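Two records follow; treat each independently.
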Amino acid sequence: MSMVTYSGTRFFELVALWVHRFQERAEMRAELATMDDGVIRDLGFTRSQLKAMANRPFWLA
């Protein structure tokens, strides 16, 4: 079995990218929670579907 190794700098770049993606997801879910009914309909979702999406844990896509 091969082992993947990263230099210290590369490791921290990957961690920073990971954190950035989680922050983006949290922001998108916050926006979902505040959308009005007309926009929700235009997107093809129901209010309950958006609530379910907005309440998902941040680590789930």
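The next record belongs to a different protein.
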Amino acid sequence: MQRAGTRVRAFAAAAVAGEEGQSTAEYAIGTIAAAAFGAVLYTVVTGDSIVNALTQIIDKALKTSV
């Protein structure tokens, strides 16, 4: 069983080797993607069709008798 653990550790060490500096680039790409998604979402949500749809839903909910 100890041999399997040694192999797993060796494989993990080999997989991690050479990946230094990758996390910074990955964070940068992730940040840019999140900002782009936020911009698209903001544009969609602040559009007239979404505002009108939400207003109609709220009006309908307030006019409902219980």
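Discussion point: Helices lie at 2-16, 22-45, 48-63. How would you locate this feature using only the token line?
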